[in-house]
């Protein structure tokens, strides 16, 4: 494969967690970009990814040793009035609001040809910042039933991620049925000291990126290819859309064979419909009934 370099760009790979973030990152890697925090140029102390835990750590907020009541108060103090034009919510199941100027400052730190992963719900504040910094955004979505299934395991074991999930302690005190209900319905996570949104609200906030004209919106099921239970023709079409979005002329030989990577640091049964084998009858019915409406809205 030969890649012709074009004017420098940086990439925000955005997603709902467990929607194929690292599958998409693999494609962007193949196209010549490198992940920000694991390569030369990473600025120590800046977020490694744009997620709930990382931005709090970067701002010097460590809640691990604080009692839940105090944690909750500090989180609530960070929540700005809804509709504010000066803050960006970072995170999926719960958001931590950061001044847009600080997010812009962090984005400026990335060297050329780097990408950063993020879990950022739709906001009108972010696109102008990305455009001014010559960033491209790609968002990947996945069947909500598969996302919930994967989250149930990931929260308990983040595999190769640098830190445990902020909900791990709460989850360990629950049964599988309680974990599923908590993810779907939301509620207060006592050990983490945060309020978790219901999954429908969470999913819709991410799905809204499909209406942003400057964001390339792709589906996990189209990108996974035949090795993950998908379709190679659809995979090739999506890869071509990505190269066009990044202004990269690509002469590829085996690019598609390189995409599906079970050694990825958070890989877990990354196949279409594998979620159906993860539950008994009652829990499976609960999940499918709950997700029926958002599946329709998202085209699943």
UniProtKB/TrEMBL annotation:
Domain Sulfotransferase: from-to ranges: 9-292
Keyword Transferase part of the UniProt annotation: yes
Pfam family, one: Sulfotransfer_1
GO MF annotations, alphabetized: sulfotransferase activity
Xref: SUPFAM superfamilies: P-loop containing nucleoside triphosphate hydrolases (SSF52540)
Gene3D superfamilies registered for this protein in UniProt: P-loop containing nucleotide triphosphate hydrolases
Entry keyword annotation includes Transferase: yes
UniProt keyword annotations, A-Z: Transferase
Assigned protein family: Belongs to the sulfotransferase 1 family.
Protein name from the UniProt record: Sulfotransferase
Species this protein is from: SAR324 cluster bacterium
């Amino acid at each position: 494969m030969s890649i012709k370099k074009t004017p420098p760009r940086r990439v925000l790979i955005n997603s709902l967690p467990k929607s194929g973030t690292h599958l998409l990152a693999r494609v962007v890697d193949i196209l010549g970009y490198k992940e920000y925090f694991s390569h030369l140029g990473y600025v120590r102390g800046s977020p490694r990814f744009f997620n709930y835990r990382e931005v709090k750590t970067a701002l010097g907020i460590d809640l691990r040793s604080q009692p839940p009541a105090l944690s909750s108060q500090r989180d609530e103090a960070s929540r700005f009035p809804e509709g504010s034009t000066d803050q960006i919510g970072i995170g999926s199941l719960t958001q931590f609001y950061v001044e847009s100027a600080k997010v812009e400052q962090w984005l400026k730190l990335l060297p050329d040809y780097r990408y950063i992963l993020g879990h950022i719900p739709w906001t009108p504040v972010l696109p102008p910042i990305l455009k001014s910094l010559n960033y491209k955004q790609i968002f990947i979505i996945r069947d909500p039933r598969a996302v919930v299934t994967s989250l149930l395991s990931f929260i308990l074991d983040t595999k190769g991620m640098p830190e445990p999930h902020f909900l791990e302690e709460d989850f360990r005190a629950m049964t599988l049925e309680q974990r599923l209900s908590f993810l779907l319905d939301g509620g207060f996570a006592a050990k983490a000291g945060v309020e978790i949104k219901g999954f429908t609200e969470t999913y819709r906030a991410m799905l809204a990126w499909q209406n942003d004209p400057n964001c390339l919106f792709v589906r996990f099921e189209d990108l996974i290819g035949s090795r993950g239970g998908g379709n190679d023709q659809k995979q090739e079409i999506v890869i071509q859309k990505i190269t066009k979005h990044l202004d990269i002329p690509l002469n590829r030989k085996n690019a598609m064979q390189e995409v599906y990577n079970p050694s990825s640091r958070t890989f877990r049964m990354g196949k279409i419909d594998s979620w159906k084998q993860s539950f008994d009858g009652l829990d499976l019915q609960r999940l499918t009934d709950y997700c029926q409406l958002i599946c329709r809205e998202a085209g699943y």
